[in-house]
Structures
1.
Amino acid sequence: MDIAQAASKDIAITIAAAQSTSAPLDVAANVRTHLRFVEAAADHGVQWLVFPELSLTGYELAAMPAMLLHPGHALLAPLREAARRTGLAITVGAPVESENALPSIGAITLQPGGGRSVYRKFHLHAGEKQFATPGQEPMHLQQMGATCIASAICADTNQPIHAARAAQAGAHVYAAGILTSKTGYAAEAPLWRAYAREHRMVVLIANHGGPSGSYVSAGKSCIWNTQGLPIAASPGDGDWLVIARPSPQESA
């Protein structure tokens, strides 16, 4: 994989977007891919690593009921161990159970100390509503040291109210796993930049590195500073690790 990295005074921990490529419906293979990103991230001092939407299965909506995962699932044991060993918090994309018959599109976070959490996509695209249940939690915040991180998944980031709620709740970082094409990216990136600038939050977008479901991903995973300027970004598709680290004078 390629690495894009830079420092910023706007962050207090080292964060990264994993622009990974998913094998359709092959969780074991995707876990192996994730582990390669985790090892590379650990080598570069990353403390929080975010993967794309449905990164562990690919964007295969119709198959989600048969592919449900949860933080304690046996298939995720290598990732739990990697989080413990490396000291990394890892957020991965997966189908998860909901309170209704249809599953939810989830972001599972595995903490190095053993903590686990699940965020369920709150805003669905129109084409997802026949396959998925929206989450009941409009905002999901997690803490690492003094840094508060708000989770988002793809269509969440198209709704300005979602980012505004994150900012109002005290988030320093708005971190989203997504899947979007070149056309989608061109329309959505101005929103992400605006969230960073207007809410004074660092915004992290982790897109797929290759095609998934019916989408040809644009890649271009990016981390924007609080002025809406890119700290680090991938130039296009392919496997990339995009890292933003604190400026030396900002490090604790």
Note: The CA atoms of residues 171 and 188 lie 21 Å apart.
2.
Amino acid sequence: MKELLFYERPADGTAIGQLILHHGRGSHEGDLLPIADAIDPQHRLHVVAPRAPLELPGSPGFHWYLVPRVGFPDKATFHASREALAAFHDAAFARTGIPASRTVLGGFSMGAVMSYALALSSDRPVPAGVLALSGFIPTLDDWQPSFMDRRSLRMFVSHGAEDPVISVDFAHSAREQVTEAGLPLEYLEFDGGHWIDSQQIAPATSWLTATIDAAATGIDL
């Protein structure tokens, strides 16, 4: 299996936790680094950002999977990336000494989909939280999200109400699934489209701080 290239930003001092960020479709591992600095301004966290493995003819940047239909990833490329990310996450946990329980998986668009996929897979360790920006919980006939075995998982779901690329209906569906499962959820719907908006920064920062602090102290919020 091909190892994923990545960018790594150490914390200032001893890291209290870890943030793994997954970029969107057609982008690269450096794309979300300004977001990391914005939501972790004191650099309390070790930040890791992997590059997606797919390069597509005629399409710039890097991709996690093929898109035959929004919401329904191509199975072969989705599972290949999920396995590559699982190996990458495990290596990051081992390299940094920061376990999944003190790690937040975050991403934008296609990267949010992969964050959901790794955090909600029954064969994966439960992370501290998921920061899902403008994405969706994927639908496949051979993969199902697992909620009941990860009741401590905290979720931040945010989406533009006028998103023309990934409809806000996908965020509504994620909100419904997470709420029905009883997982802690903060939901933010902003006036905008398929982008990361300034309206998201303050609530995402507060959520991330609370999530990592709770994980570090073992307090269940």
Note: Helices lie at 33-39, 75-96, 110-119, 168-181, 198-217.
3.
Amino acid sequence: MTQLGFRERPADGEPDGLLVLHHGRGADEFDLLPLGDALDPQRRLHVVTPAAPLLLPGFPGRHWYLVPRVGHPDPDSFHAACGALAGFHDELWERTSIAPERTVLGGFSMGSVMSYALGLGLGRPVPAGILAFSGFVPVLDDWQPDLATRAGLRTFIAHGRRDPVIEVEFGRSARDLLSVGGLEVSYHESDLGHQIDPAHLMAAHRWLAGTVSR
């Protein structure tokens, strides 16, 4: 297993659950720590932000996989990242004694893709929820989301209609795919671009509080 760097922010007192936030392309493990505070200002959750495994020559920050085409990750680097992240999640659940069913997997952009990949992956534990800002469910010949075992899984999707990096149709496609598959989807759009809308943060905060308290 590839050892992934990470940062974490403990809860105040006994944690109600675990929030794992995966950063986007070109960022690092420090990037989404403030998002953890915004989503969980009462510090009810243990927040962890892992670092992606790849450093690419000529590109800043870290990356989860190579990008030949938006929506279609490079298979080799994608599966390698999934393997490393699966091992990281498994060790995290063991170390914190917080079970998958009390865990929300979330992220922004490429980090949302990884949250979908691990939260919907065949044979992976079913989390409490998936939180996806400006991402997509990946499309590969040798990977399919396992929706049959995840009926009722809570999912929060937010996307900007003016996103020039990952077009809003990717968010809508994820909404439709998961809704038809029987997952419980909370879907949000705004007129912003490739960023997190502050208005969506308030909705995500409420969604998260309901997800980990069930």
Note: The domain at 6-212 is CATH 3.40.50.1820 (Rossmann fold).
